[in-house]
Amino acid sequence: MDSVSNIENFxxxxxxxxxxxxxxxxxxxxxxxxxxxxxxxxxxxxxxxITSEYVNYILQNDHLKLDEEFIQRNLDSFEQVLRxxxxxxxxxxxLQHSKDSIRNNNMxxxxxxxxALQEYQSSTEDLKNFDDVVISHYEERKLSQTSSEFKKFLxxxxxxxxxxxxxxxxxxxxxPIPELEEDDDDVNISGGKxxxxxxLSLNYFVxxxxxxxxxxxxxxxFILTHxxxxxxxxxxxxxxxxxxxxxxxxxxxxxxxxxxxSKRKTKxxxxxxxxxx
Amino acid sequence: MSLCKTRLQEERKQxxxxxxxxxxxxxxxxxxxxxxxTQWTAGIPGKAGTLWEDAVYPITISFPEEYPSKPPxxxxxxxxxxxxxxxxxxxxxxxxxxxxxxxxAITLKQIVLGIQELLDTPNPDSPAQEPAWKAFSxxxxxxxxxxxxxxxxYVNAG
Lengths: 277, 158
Known about the structure:
Number of helices of chain A: 9
Mean pLDDT of chain A: 78
Oligomer: heterodimer
Number of domains of chain A: 2
Subcellular location (chain B): Nucleus
Number of domains of chain B: 1
Radius of gyration of chain A: 30 Å
Distance between the termini of chain A: 91 Å
Low-confidence stretches of chain B: none
Strand order of the largest sheet of chain B: 1-2-3-4
CATH superfamily of chain B: Ubiquitin Conjugating Enzyme
Helix content of chain B: 25-40%
Strand content of chain A: under 5%
Keywords (chain B): ATP-binding, Nucleotide-binding, Nucleus, Transferase, Ubl conjugation pathway
Pathway (chain B): Protein modification; protein sumoylation
Number of strands of chain A: 3
Family (chain B): Belongs to the ubiquitin-conjugating enzyme family.
Order of helices and strands of chain B: HEEEEHHH
CATH class of chain B: Alpha Beta
Largest interface: A-B, 23 and 21 residues
Strand order of the largest sheet of chain A: 2-1-3
Distance between the termini of chain B: 37 Å
Main location (chain B): nucleus
Number of strands of chain B: 4
Helix content of chain A: 40-55%
Largest sheet of chain B: 4 strands, antiparallel
């Protein structure tokens, strides 16, 4: 009766555990997560498909030249997709964290009734509302969410690496693809050049294949000659790996290097392949 | 064209374009006057500041049909004085040995530089002839004298 007489001064307590509502919200949020994620993945895949189709088409048509800008735009778009997927992951993480934290806090809390109102009014110290928890976690994430974490995520994406390689090779057909630095935007081009010549014949590659075991590249016809003469070791000095026919795969990146290199107007004279370390 | 021929033409092209200072290498002429790319003669200059300096040591290089899967055979003149050279003149060097470190990617330039290096840094663990090996391990004064005498015989006329 006490509480009823107080009804004129009724104030909601600062902490209101609307558990049912929360559950519904979380469910809604999760369904939307999956939709966004699959949309993003699809978008990424279409950028990837367009890029590789384009590159293959150019490679099959010798008179055409790769358009640097087009590839760069695709790379930027793909990065944007990954950035969104990364943000979504962060969101999922925040949501899960908030859910757990609210569940823990509410474990010991009785349901909000008129009778329990005073209890609520008096002890609010450790209790937080949904938005408080989400905001505090989000702030926490924001502090730790440095660009290096995103770089790590970028680095782990094979398709991003593929488009990035193409974009790099168009500009630098003879240079090794630099590592994606995690904490630095500077491009570090490490000394040596990539040899565009077959280690067996010393001629420029025409139909390069690489060994999936050691990643060394050879001219298809000549590595087959080498293998059929009873040799199985990789022709590169110092490489102790065996090469077998079934480990040979077309080296698309080398094809691209050759194509870009041969289209350059001024062909810089090419140093003898230095292969002894 | 065979791999061997393709490779040898490219080796010749690259050598003509650029080769280490003091060295020479050229294919032999076949009896009919054409070039035989599988037989080369070359000269290895002794490194300055070593017992071998001021001389150019002649070698012959024969490329087998299976080159570059198999290494070329490289020889000094018979009875060449060096611990790792057989009496026949054949050089014992791991990068020239199919069972050891030979790899098809090793170029002519790398071979001749490897041989130059071997001149003054013999490998005492793989003796190929008695006199030079014995002197090198037991009588260094004698060894030095013999090497210098040999150098005089191959003095670089150029």
